[in-house]
Fold this sequence. Notes:
Blueprint: H1 5-32, E1 39-46, E2 49-56, E3 63-72, E4 75-86, E5 92-97, E6 105-112, E7 117-120, E8 124-125, H2 182-192, H3 198-229
Antiparallel strand pairs: 1-2, 2-5, 3-4, 3-6, 6-7, 6-8
Amino acid sequence: MSISSRTARTVRILGVASASAALALGVAGNALACNIRDFSAVASCDNGKGSITVTDKDASGKEATVSVYLEENGADAKKVGEKTVTGTKDGAIVTFSEDWAAGAQYRVHINANGGQVNEDLSLLTTPSKACATSQTTPPASETPKPSDTPAPAPSSSASPSATPSQPESTAPATAGDNSPSPAAGSSNLAETGASSSTPMIAGIAGGLVVIGGGAVFFGMRRRGGASKGN
Length: 230
């Protein structure tokens, strides 16, 4: 049984259409499949704190596990963290808090679609300037010095030493004490002219009186003797 040319032409057309449909479905399937190119990572700052953000734009909505490692000398120095994310066409975001240093490098590993995607993103290098801390220390010039602190106001209850003191040169006399002090007696002797030479002067005067009396006596006796001789 021979096939007519019309039938053969129809079969060829159907074959070409089927192949085109299969190719289109294959391309569409590959476009919807999870791919490492659907993921991206960036280091950023949020309120002065560092973070690493990974975005998943897998339109197929496959769940992926994202792991982040700090790299030093070509090896993992520490594991920053691991989180899961479900991709969306607009991009699903997962964030890792990390106080990264300037110029540091991080390895971001993606495991998605049941292991069909199990790769690292390109090595992430942080910016050349680290995040500024939220609390900064004020400059030394603005720090108040101890001398700038205002002195406390004087208290209303002032101490007795603050009031003017009475002169201490004149002490009040003790009532009822009329006995003269030794100092007072000495001062009275000084005022009357008495001194330690008074006995000596009195002795000399007495001696002169005796000599004078003796001279008078001998003079009178000689005169009496002369009168008898005449």
